[in-house]
What does this fold into?
Amino acid sequence: MATVALISNPMSTGNREVLPRVREFAARSSEIFHYEIGAVEEVPAALKTIALTKPKVLVINGGDGTVQSILTELQHGKPFGDAPPPLAVLPNGKTNLIALDLGAGDDALQALQRILDIAETGVEPHLTARKLISLNDGQNERPVMGMFLGGAGLASSILFCRHKLYPLGIPNWMAHVLTTITAVLVFVVGLRWRWIPLAQKKVSISVRRQGRKLEGSFFLLMITTLERVLMNVGGSGAEDNRLGMMVIEQGRGAVMKAAWSTLKGRLGADPFKGMHLDSGDEIRITGEGSDVILDGEHFRAPQGGSLVLTPTAPVSFLKLAA
It folds into this structure.
């Protein structure tokens, strides 16, 4: 029986530097069962093996896409039955949104030591519940699970950063700054360059509980269950069966206000014309501009169909922040 089970994806960007240190750390501790996968397709077999060790905590060492694959398998494959161990996420990958939301900081080894200490002294005081976003495109047998979805201009910007800037080998922070500047130039100033795939495509967003429907070209679509974001996104906690959503219209005034609010750290806290805060137990995304990024993975509604987003029951995570 392991105190902590650690599953690592060597292909995650952050693991190119940190994995050797993680391996060394795990090798020194008899309380850690470390399993490395060669590809996300190996997640089901890895979790079945890990379940045999009956860990107190399952730790994920990979990017948001790795977390997504594991969350999806835990929901559908149920390798631990109906009582999976609480999850912890090490800071890794390009964005670390999930790890940051759980207070993991920016040092993987410090986070791993903190998790080990908690597991040995008792996890109950550190447990926190999070709903997951279940995404169904009507084509896959199993909906995909995640915690942060970006669409509209945000999805275009993420894809631009991924396909145009990351391959240049520049630091992540620089790629993110350049993406932000480029998005402002395209969506606010109206500049157009052939090599920048930032398009203003129409999309329809329907919220079932509110009976509300938004249609048009939007600068930002954000749907999440992450606690830090939910505080500003008209959203709900784990006890409320709704997804939090923010939509910002494609208009120079709304985009400039959004950019200013972001610089002040107040996006969502100070409502303005062109920003919509909503929540619902089912959100449908349809249309030419239906491209979304769910925890790093790209999805698009099928021709004539919709992406259907619903919340899951709360899942237990380990919160590392004091």
